[in-house]
Design goal:
The chain has one domain: MFS general substrate transporter like domains (Growth Hormone, Chain: A, Up-down Bundle), CATH 1.20.1250. Helices cover 83% and strands 0% of the residues. The chain has 16 helices and no strands. The two termini are 36 Å apart.
């Protein structure tokens, strides 16, 4: 009994440590999604259209760096494994780059400001975030091949990611006000958040272990997979294509919806501090719901739980749109959306990890780094398009930056389109994609076949 207790405690600690990685990632990712455009327009004095264009163009470089980092992870050989070394190497640069992101020199002229934005945005997104997030994303598939354990790891990942999101959404604006509610206050705020991110990544590094090896490695062979062979294998993997498309759409939606939240609270609801209320309830409900998702996954499978979450998300968004600003309906909407997002967040990354095993079974090629980096490429492209789309829609709608600005009816409609209607369309597309996803039913047979191959190769 004592040994079983220790084993359970050890497993819980490892699951928590794994989740801390996304807690650290989300400190910067949530800030970029929810507050960066607001910071640029209302504090740094930069055009939303110009910033949106920079974000979209930067995704081209970002996508290339993702693929490069995926190859690097697959070729990394160290006593810590393939992915974990990068968590240790990049955690401090990650924090420093986040601070620079929110340190635009406000006294500079427009052109130098845009150059600074371009350089620091790419430093964060193209270089540093890629170098830590791609290895982290590959870590799930390297820790275990058990589909239920992968789901539980994904639940912990989403729990801690949501906790990071909750902290950023709840405390960013109050901290900015505490530090003086000016441009330099944002820099000071992200100095604090940067320290928190470093601590999270260190827990992630020291608390996890890589255990999974490919069939070739198990049989004593360790050939490098040529880049062209790896790419060809990806596009023979139908489930990877589905999940990459799903991720691209979801992160486009997260970027548009997340970036529009502060505008929706400030200009539609009349109080920018309602960001904390809306997102706070949403994230708390998401965290609480996570404790029940594992049971649903065990009974109904990842794909069905994911689809159920999409239905909840659609209902929650429709309720919010027709709430008329009534606080009780806003709260109920946040609760429903929190449950929906818990279903999606708890299953999405585990489903990506499952496509790695399917790809190895179908093509004989196992590339955790390349699979996750190519997924990252897809969702960063979606994120970049979303950022540009948000800026473009606000610009076309005639949004006027500034605390005391009065927005036109068209500007208010543009905010609603970004916050409510684009997400609803993407949730519906997600339901259509899930109609063709059957890997849950096939997975146990695939793993059994891979084990037989590994024995036969020895």
């Amino acid at each position: 009994m004592e040994n079983k207790s220790k084993l359970t405690l050890s497993k819980i600690i490892e699951r928590f440590s794994y989740g801390c990685g996304d807690f650290g990632c989300n400190i910067i990712y949530t800030a970029m999604s929810a507050f960066l455009l607001f910071y640029y327009t209302d504090y740094a004095g930069v055009s939303s259209l110009a910033v949106g264009t920079i974000m979209m163009v930067s995704r081209i470089f970002d996508g290339i760096s993702d693929i490069i980092m995926g190859v690097i992870v697959d070729r990394t050989r160290s006593r810590f494994g393939k992915a974990r070394p990068w968590l240790l190497r990049m955690c401090v640069p990650f924090a420093l780059s986040g601070i620079l992101l929110f340190s635009v020199p406000t006294s500079w002229a427009t052109t130098p400001k845009l150059v600074y934005v371009f350089i620091t945005y790419n430093l964060v997104s193209t270089v540093i975030y890629t170098a830590i997030n791609v290895p982290y994303s590959a870590l799930n598939a390297l820790m275990t091949q058990d589909p239920y354990e992968r789901s539980v790891l994904s639940i912990f990942r989403n729990l801690l990611a949501t906790a990071g999101t909750l902290i950023i959404n709840t405390f960013t604006l109050p901290m900015v006000e505490f530090f003086g509610n000016n441009a330099s206050a944002w820099t000071k705020t992200f100095c604090v958040f940067g320290i928190l991110a470093v601590a999270a990544f260190l827990i992630n590094f020291f608390g996890t272990k890589e255990r999974v090896k490919s069939v070739a490695t198990e049989s004593g062979k360790r050939p490098e997979v040529p880049f062209g062979v790896g790419i060809k294998a990806l596009f023979q993997n139908k489930y990877w294509i589905m999940m990459t498309g799903m991720l691209a759409l979801f992160f486009l939606m997260y970027s548009v919806n997340g970036g529009a939240t502060v505008f929706y609270a400030k200009d539609i609801l009349g109080d920018k501090n309602l960001v904390g209320t809306i997102n706070g309830i949403f994230n708390v409900v998401q965290i609480v719901s996570m404790f029940f998702i594992a049971m649903l996954v065990k009974k109904y499978g990842k794909r069905n739980v994911f689809a159920l979450g999409l239905v909840f998300d659609i209902i929650g968004m429709l309720l919010l749109n027709f709430s008329g600003g009534t606080m009780i309906l806003i709260v109920v909407s946040s609760i429903i959306r929190g449950v929906g997002n818990a279903c999606g967040g708890a299953t999405m990354w585990a489903m990506v990890s499952d496509t790695i095993d399917y790809g190895e079974w179908k093509t004989g090629v196992r590339t955790e780094g390349l699979v996750n980096s190519a997924c990252s490429f897809g969702y960063k492209i979606g994120n970049g398009i979303g950022s540009a789309l948000l800026g473009l829609i606000l610009e076309v709608g005639g949004y006027v930056g500034g605390e005391a600005a009065v927005q036109s009816a068209v500007a208010l409609t543009s905010i609603k389109v970004c916050f409510v209607w684009i997400p609803i369309v993407i949730y519906v597309i997600g339901l259509i994609i899930m109609k063709f996803y059957h890997l849950d039913k096939e997975f146990s047979g695939i793993i059994e076949d891979l084990k037989k191959r590994a024995k036969a190769e020895k």
